[in-house]
Amino acid sequence: MRRHLLAVAVLLAVFLAINECHERMQTFVHRLSVVKKEDRRKTAVKNWSLPKPRPAISQEGASVMSSPREIAEEYLVQHRDSLRLQPHHELRPEVYETPIGSTVRYGVFQDGLPIVGIGIEIQLDRDLAITRVNNEYRPLKKADLSEPMLTQEDVLEKVSSRFVTDSDRVAQSSSLLYVEPGSDQPSLAYSVPVREMGKRSRSMQVLVRASDGQILRKSFSRAD
Known about the structure:
This protein is an alpha+beta fold and 224 residues long. Among the domains are: 64-135, Nuclear Transport Factor 2, Chain: A (Roll), CATH 3.10.450; 152-220. It has helices at 2-49, 68-78, 80-83, 152-159; strands at residues 56-58, 62-64, 90-98, 101-110, 113-125, 130-135, 174-178, 187-195, 203-209, 215-220.
């Protein structure tokens, strides 16, 4: 009988010890989960409060670039060789900014004249990271502007035999450099606003080669 009672007492003591250990383990796990949640909350607040870094360039001391144009200019400097930028070409930027990002478009000029059909467009997000580059640049030879050319008045006279030229629109004529298909050298041309002969008389823009007065291209106005 005494042995039976002793065995029962031992079993009861073991049960109580196991139950106490279980309760202590649950308390430890609860405290650990609370600490982890607090750490995650602090980390989230810290990450949210930190501004995103912007690209930087080192020039005689660290200077942080803060505009789309500066980022685009640095891209051109870094990739000048791979883009094969020519020394006789001048790249002039135009910057377009929106709430979600910016676009820097470079027109290509030689001796102050725009070259039609080639250029570089660099797109950036609102954190000034470059997201896309549209490259239509070509390493063209330098246009020879020393050759004899028709004057703008000569070109207008030639065009007037096929189209109607308005005196008030002649002032909108402009000089530019045009690259003909298959050529690697641009030539001087004039962009002249004219109207068709006849009843419809639609407005259009004709591109005339300055060397011989040949019409290279015609484009109608969007309104027509």
